[in-house]
Design goal:
Length: 242
């Protein structure tokens, strides 16, 4: 079982540069640490918004290259979403349903996550960003490089904003992780409970990261007790694995 956490601190890394496709994300994080006189410490959890991972991994799609099918056109009429975006949602998911008669579209991504709009992120009127191909692999690569650059033994969580079918608004969940066991077991009064720890971490970081326009895609959480894990990512706790 994981030891309880009685308190932790959290801070954003900013100002953070606007990244371009193919940029070195770990290098950008290290540069911000250097400019701000901040050092990572062993046990820190670095939480990164999935969009910047998608940008550096060149997951951009030009909507002009997308040909909507009949189902996408019909869903577009019901939800008001561009048919090209709806087609991308259909392409990235194995099943979906509408939270209300007019949306949002709640889709089961082929990665196994249930996400609003299958995690598709609009990029203006002409494009969209897809999720990383393998968020856990992305987290492992980022963690390894950050450890090389900084010398600190840290964990990495990739977070994505997501809506719920039963309420308005968005929260933040984990879609990738490295160096931290995604599940923790707690016990009280003789009862044991599994908790999705990386989701709790992502949600805590989401208070700082915010939603569109915040401009702070990376946060550091310090003081959280967790079990280190070299290979157990978020996919290991999904009911429907990719």
């Amino acid at each position: 079982m994981t030891a309880p956490t009685s308190g932790f601190s959290a801070f954003s890394l900013e100002p953070f540069p606007e990244l371009q496709p193919g940029d070195d994300l770990a290098g950008a994080i290290t540069d911000v640490l250097t400019r701000t006189g901040t050092e990572l410490e062993d046990g820190d959890v670095v939480v990164v918004a999935s969009k910047v991972v998608s940008i550096t991994e060149k997951r951009y799609v030009d909507l002009a290259s997308v040909a909507p099918g009949p189902e996408a056109v019909e869903l577009s009429g019901r939800t008001g979403k561009p048919a090209e975006i709806v087609q991308l949602i259909l392409d990235a998911s194995s099943e979906y349903f509408l939270a209300t008669e007019t949306g949002p579209i709640i889709a089961r991504h082929t990665l196994g996550h249930q996400l609003t709009s299958a995690g598709i992120d609009r990029a203006g009127t002409e494009g969209a960003w897809l999720l990383p191909v393998d968020p856990d692999a992305s987290a492992r690569a980022l963690r390894d490089t950050l450890t090389t650059y900084t010398g600190a033994d840290v964990a990495v969580v990739i977070a994505d904003s997501d809506g719920r079918a039963d309420r308005r608004g968005a929260t933040v969940i984990s879609i990738g992780a490295a160096g931290i066991a995604p599940l923790r077991t707690t016990e009280h009064g003789g009862k044991k409970q599994e908790e999705t720890l990386t989701d709790l971490v992502a949600a805590a970081a989401g208070i700082i990261l915010g939603q569109r326009g915040r401009g702070a895609p990376v946060a550091v959480l310090r003081g959280i007790n967790y079990t280190s894990s070299s290979d157990a990512g978020v996919a290991t706790m999904l009911h429907h694995r990719p």
